Amino acid sequence: FRPTVRLGEGKFHRLKVTLRQKGLHVSARAGYYETRAYRTLNPLERSLLTADVINGGGARGEIPVGALAIPLAGSGIARVPVLIQVPASSLQDSKHSGRVRIAIYVYLTDADGGLADYFSRNLTIDLAREGARLSAGYLRYSGACRLLPGRYTLRALVQDEETGRYGFANASVNVPDYSGTRLQAFPPLFLGDEGRGLNLREPSSGGGGEEIFELGGAPFVPQIDPPIPASGDSKICLFVYRPHGDGDRPFDVDVEILGDDGKSRAPARVALIGRTTADTDGLTKLMLDFSVRDLPPGRYSLKVTVRDSREKALESSSEAPFTVS
Question: Tens digit of pLDDT for each residue in 137-147?
Answer without folding.
Answer: 888 999 999 99
